[in-house]
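Incident log, entry 3
Record: Pectinesterase inhibitor domain-containing protein (196 residues)
Problem: checksum mismatch between cached and fresh output.
Input:
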Amino acid sequence: MLRHWHVSFLSFCFFLLFLFLFLWTPYDEISATRTFSVDLINKTCKTCSDKSTVFNYTFCSASLQEIPVSRTTNLQGLAIVAMELTLQNATHTLSVIKELRRNETWGHPFASACLRDCDVLYSDGVITLVDAVAAFLEGKYGSAGAWLTAVMDGATTCEEGFGDMEEASPLTEQNYSVFQLCDVALCIVNLLVSHA
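Fresh output:
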């Protein structure tokens, strides 16, 4: 119980930081950086999609452009935004899993076992994402990348668990979003390492 409260509190802190930075930025500065930020996002997403067959350029571009442009004026800011989006999505997915688990009439016993496994994976994943952000902010890009990879593996394992049980996954959309957002963040981290 304490662990879940800790996760929720950390997610709330990141949200407050995100909101503060958005409200603090003057409107004319946002307007002035919009074109540059959109160009940076599109260029970065294109570079990443060229490096991977599973990377979704459209998903990357649309996701990152939802964020206030003042936060995306360089690769470091873009990486933090991608990790914040991943954390928000992973936290939301965890709440969906818990709601499904509370619904006792949902699914087969095998599906319940899959949901239990996904609960563990995402509970750990949210904490891992917080660690990844902290490592990135400390300049430990290798550690941040390793933890992002672990969260991607967790989303994949969650989804594949239903396939192994021949059950329809109720989390396909959520797992895909978390996987792709992790991939976006990981690619940007790797770009920063290669440019260092």
